Amino acid sequence: MDTKIEKILRLVQEGKMSPEEADSLLGLLKMKDKSSRSGCNLKIRIIKDDGDGEKNVNLNLPINFVKMMVKATGKFSIEALGKNKDVKESLLNVGLNFDENGKIEDVESFLKALDALCEHAPIDIANVQVSDGDEDVDIKISID
After folding, report:
1. Which terminus of the chain faces fewer neighbouring Cβ atoms within 10 Å, N or C?
2. 93 CB-contact burial (10 Å; exposed 0-12 / middle 13-18 / buried 19+)
């Protein structure tokens, strides 16, 4: 058995730590172990061409960070990804339901869906191209 787990169990046995505290610590250890094995990221690419050349924004968020933030806040809103139908459809296709305000109804289902997406990565979630006059904007969201 892992020495960290043994130490936590010993602290509970000695009454120096409550079972609830031990459960939280063991959960964090498990999450840390998974994150060290998983390099899955939510990638958001925004490419804007306004005639003066391309401007790029590249955002890489580790999925475990996204999951931790969702757990910490207890919420996630489709509004965070914009009102693009492709994004919402992709999330609905993996079994996620949203309330009338665009907030996810079942956070645990969302977390499981993120795990499932990582298992099948790389996956393109959305590829949106918008043209407004002299500006062209491409938004690409993927799991890698």
Report:
1. N
2. exposed
User: Which sign does the torsion angle of CA 34, 60, 83, 90 carry?
Assistant: negative
Q: Average model confidence (pLDDT) for the chain?
A: 77
**Plot region of 15 (φ>0 → left; ψ -120 to 50 → alpha; else → beta):** left
Which comes out higher in pLDDT, residue 72 or 14? 14
Which residues are within 8 A (CB) of 27 and not within 5 positions of it... i.e. 6 or more apart? none
Determine the pLDDT at residue 23.
86
Give the whole-angstrom CA distance, residue 124 versus residue 122.
7
The SS3 call for residue 101 is coil
Q: Which residue's structure tokens are 């079994």?
A: 95
